[in-house]
Amino acid sequence: MKVLVDEMYDGIDVKLKELGYQAFSVKKLIAEGKKLTSDYSVIKYAEENGMVMVTEDAEVGKACKENNIPCVLLDNETIFKIILEELGQYKNR
Predict the structure, then answer these.
(1) Tell me, what's the pLDDT at 56?
(2) Staple partner for 6: which of 15, 33, 51, 55, CB 3.0–4.6 Å?
(3) Structural domain for 15, as ranges
(4) How buried is 12 (Cβ within 10 angstroms: 0-12 exposed, 13-18 middle, 19+ buried)?
(5) Closest of 62, 81, 61 to residue 72, by C-alpha
(6) Which tens digit of pLDDT belongs to each residue from 64-93?
(7) Structure pTM?
(8) Which domain CATH number covers 48?
């Protein structure tokens, strides 16, 4: 599975690679000379390369959904669910 990690999550690509994913960072791709400075370019790159997009940018998530591009959107609701799960381990202390 190919994964494209948005700029704000640069470094997550390395961890995903360690787990066997073909992961790429927008930030690193830009440093290599790819023209990915707009949301459109990033989304199009993910689509053209058969990638799952990972982002916290709601507009990117919305555009992915509208265009049937797989996307993991780490919005406030998703982060809140993770916080609640983590807090659950401390409930009985």
Answers:
(1) 93
(2) 55
(3) 2-88
(4) middle
(5) 61
(6) 999 999 999 998 888 899 889 999 888 877
(7) 0.86
(8) 3.40.50
